[in-house]
Amino acid sequence: MGILEGKYLIASGPVIIEDGKLLVNKDDKDDFYKIPGGSISKEVRDLEKACHEKVKEEINGEIEIIKPLHPKILWENPQTKEKMTIILTSYLAKLKNKDEIKPMGSTIEIKWLDLKEIDEWKHKVSPYTQFLIEKGDIKC
């Protein structure tokens, strides 16, 4: 197997579950909900630090990381179908400032999805969120 070539993207974000609900947001790029977080810059050497920074940038969130969850690799951009390497990482986390979260940057909406309705909203969330549900990292 050869060395990875071409475009790549590495993303990091928290999975925040509180009172049986999953915190998700929607941005101006995608038509589905996803966990907060996003792509990290080349200078970043610590995925946990990136997770803290991204949730702060997107929803003004401050978190405490509990544990890493299943990462996923995509070999093409789900929207454009462009061939590239996308590495998605996430951490189970606790939100420390629930009353202060708000849409920031490209985030247009923040929502708490009821985990009891997990089957009903599966098609409205990102492929990575669906993957975390299948792996049991997000469950009711």
Share of helical residues: 10-25%
Q: Which fold does the CATH topology refer to? A: Nucleoside Triphosphate Pyrophosphohydrolase
Span of the ends, CA to CA: 39 Å
Name the overall outline.
globular
Task: Tell me, rounded to a whole number, the average pLDDT.
Answer: 90
Total strands: the figure is: 7
Count up the domains.
Answer: 1
**CATH class type:** Alpha Beta
**Rg, Å, rounded:** 15 Å
Reported for the largest beta sheet, the result is: 7 strands, mixed
- The SS-based structural class is alpha+beta
Spans of at least 5 consecutive residues with low confidence = none
Order of helices and strands: EEEHEEEEHH
Q: What would you give as the CATH superfamily?
A: Nucleoside Triphosphate Pyrophosphohydrolase
User: Per DSSP, what share of the residues sits in E-state strands of 2 or more residues?
Assistant: 35-45%
- The CATH architecture: Alpha-Beta Complex
Task: Report the total helices.
Answer: 3
Q: What characteristics describe this protein?
A:
Nucleoside Triphosphate Pyrophosphohydrolase; seven-stranded mixed β-sheet; 3 helices; 18% helix; globular
Itemize the secondary structure elements and their pairings.
Layout: E1 8-18, E2 21-27, E3 38-39, H1 47-59, E4 63-68, E5 72-76, E6 83-95, E7 107-114, H2 118-121, H3 127-134
Parallel strand pairs: 1-6
Antiparallel strand pairs: 1-2, 1-3, 2-7, 4-6, 5-6
